[in-house]
Write a structure and sequence with these properties.
Blueprint (H helix, E strand, L loop, with lengths): L4 H35 L7 H7 L13 H29 L48
């Protein structure tokens, strides 16, 4: 197998271009790793800021919370309190034994009732006047 000058030049340029591509790919991976470490690391907050500006989760109290969150806790507490009281009432009613109660009342009357009216009778009207007649005065007597 004989190599031409033309074949030799094409193979060396192809190998050279592949080598440059691999070098460029390696550099981009290294540069992106370094930039990623610098800009996207979790060390963005200084330790001094952590001690002055932030509170530990165990040290959080109700007074440290913002007003809006405090209002949410108050509303949630009042709602759960109402729910719990209603549940307690329902449980008491379920546990309560239902026994019939007998209620006795004694009524004291001063006079015994003599007559009890059981029937109301209506009387029909005998005559209905529908016309009023005026008579003129005939004589006026003066003394």
């Amino acid at each position: 197998m004989e190599y031409n000058e033309f074949d030799y030049e094409t193979t060396t340029t192809q190998e050279c271009s592949h080598t440059l591509g691999y070098v460029f790919l390696g550099l981009t991976i290294v540069v992106s790793a370094v930039l990623g470490y610098i800009y996207f690391s979790y060390d963005m907050v200084d330790k001094g800021d952590l001690k002055t500006k932030y509170i530990l989760k165990d040290d959080i109290t109700y007074a440290n919370l913002p007003y809006d969150i405090q209002e949410q806790y108050i509303q949630k507490y009042s709602a759960t309190l109402q729910i719990n009281t209603l549940k307690d009432k329902v449980n008491k009613l379920k546990n309560k034994k239902c026994e019939p109660k007998i209620i006795t009342k004694t009524i004291e009357v001063e006079k015994p009732v003599e007559k009890i009216v059981t029937k109301i009778v209506e009387k029909p009207v005998e005559k209905i006047v529908t016309k009023i007649v005026e008579k003129p005065v005939e004589k006026i007597v003066t003394k």
